[in-house]
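Hey, can you fold this one?
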Amino acid sequence: MRVFQKANRQAPGRAPGLQPPPGELEGMQGRRRYFAVAGAAAVVGSSLAAGQLGRVLWLVTAVACSAPMLVRAVRDRRSISTAWGLVAAGFVTRLLADAVWSAESMLHGGAVPFPSWNDFGYLLSYGLLVTGLIGAAGGRARVALLDASILVASVAVIDWMVLIHPYLHRTEIGPLALGLALAYPLCDLVLFAVAVRVLLSGAARHRANLLLLAGVGLMLTANTIFFAHAANGRVRDVHWLDDVLWLGSYLALGLAGLHPRVFGRREPRRPQAGDERDVLSAGRILLFGAATLLGPAATVYRLVTTDGSRAPGEWRHLIVPALLAGLLSVLLVVRLGGLARLAQRRLADLATNERRLEAALVERVSLEHQLRHGALHDPVTGLANRALLSERMDWALARPERRHHALLLLDVDRFTDVNDAYGIDFGDQVLVALAARLRAVAAPGDTLARLGGDEFALFVEHAPAELPAERLRAEVKAPLRVGARVVHLTASFGLVDIDGQTPPDVIADAELALRAAKRGGRDRVVRYRPELRSARDTFTRISAGLRHAVERGELAVHYQPVVELPDARIVAVEALLRWTPADGPVPPDDFIPVAEETGLIVPIGAWVLEQACRAAGTWHERFGTSITVNVSVRQLAEPHFADEVLAVLDRTGLPAAALVLEITESVFAGDADALPDALARLRGHGIRIAIDDFGTGYSSLSYLNQLPVDILKIDRSFVPSGPGSDGDHAFTRAVLQLGSSRSLPAIAEGIETAEQAEVLHALGCRLAQGYHFAKPGPASQLEAAFARLNPVRTG
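Sure. Predicted structure:
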């Protein structure tokens, strides 16, 4: 813990190298400004001082300027990266070598021997600086290395002309001194190369690192000026400009030490393919242009400054600048080749991207077409759907010229039987085959659509006088082969002539006509007429009123007696539903079909059964009569119908033998053995089943023997009108005789006259019901009928 606190002594709780808080950051910026101003003044003052005092002031200034970095390097040594730590160590080593040089200068009266002990420090500082900067640049900045090589090759021409070549002509110094003298400019050249590489690679992104590079640049500039003087034999002369530049390098070092994010550890950003660093910026182009002129300029300078008495072999010294110029040209060619390859790669990438974009656009157009097609067409048959039908109708009806259009809706009758028998997948195949037939009948300009399920629509533009409705009906009725099966279908059609209506209104009118065709017995075409709209409005009004009829007390159960001929004694009672809303009574023939179609007959029928069984309990006890309650097909389809009937008998106490459930022949749908399970179960408990309106529906005398019922109710249309109507007696006589042979009592309905009652009695009919005996009425009215027709109690 102490070690951690020591490493973070500057800002406890903050990791080294991270940005300090705003207040502390402003304080550090102020200190850097003061240090820069004071350091600059000290640099100028100590550089202008002469003699021993000047040397002392120079050394003190150098130590003072670099002190912040020295303190920072020791204090935050754990947060310093190895590469930049070596750079700082190189400056420290150079500072120590400067101290040795100053001491030797004062000891020898200003004449420092060459070579000397300080040279070891300088050479070591070069090694540390070069090694640190190589590590700071990293091994991945190849483009930066190439750019640095171009600049170094150009600077090398100057070094050869100004520094190296003059030394080669000095014969007064020994080999060791000559080698050391040549080592310095070569080390400067190497240090310049790695510094430029670091700068161009972007490794010195922190401002502190840029200050370190600036210190290296100032030092190299001072070295170049100093060695240029030394090459001309003035080794001991130190110009004030050299002192300013050297001290300036230490000042840059100190300013870097005061920066809050000195020595960042982040690795240089790794260039990617097509990186912007591979592209020549305007600054680099100008820099390379200047570099290409350095070689020729140095050569011209050399030729101009050499007098006419040049030695015969002097031209050999121009070989090195020429080679360096050639190397520079080669490097520039390589650099330009890299740019050309980069341009080719980017051009290829652009072409690839264009092809991909073109393919993506084609795919998008195709996808949009598929989505639009899917949004406007039926996925099973491929026909237009309701949205496309409305769109086509909108377009046709919006045209200025008035034309005769028509819409034909068709719904396959009992298509659920196909799905139930063969499965939904086969049903879809049937729809596809049927759609193909309908498409063959439709004209090219017509719109054939599937609206859903087994319902289709045909919008006929410019409809002819004779619409293809009957032809479509014939096509639907024709045997349809699907795979190995042959399917026989029929359809109901609703037809509407369009005359100014909007598409929604047209479809609504066609649906009304289609429902009328369904109610009319299916397999027929019904043309829309305004009466259908009125009937539908009436249907809507009645269904809305029926939903609240029970809770409002508008429903009532009336009772009509069933009498025994000839004395007209009451033996049974039929419960009949009546509805009297606030605006007046509604006939049963009007509201019962509505209740059937909407399903309201289920709760209403349960209420009627409860009321009838409660009222019949007293009559059964007193007179031995039974109660007959009508049951609809919708009630029989309920899964718990039998349980609810038995529960009503249990609550009311009415014996099962006293209840007769009256059903229509449609329950059997032509199959005499198809008695619903619920009725079979109730029949097993003793409840009797009566078939209403016998002879008008699916039944016939040929299968009367097979009907699983207990009572027959002969429809009023087969009741003889009087004694002289012998032609009306045949069917009634046959039913009565067959019922007698099966021990099935028959009840003749609709008896309105005494003559009808006499004829029926003569034919052998024992039970009758009608207005001649009593009209349906409330329970109180039935009590009067009992008093009149059953004066003697039978219970």
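Residues 319-376 form the longest helix (58 residues). Let me know if you want another pass with a different chain boundary.
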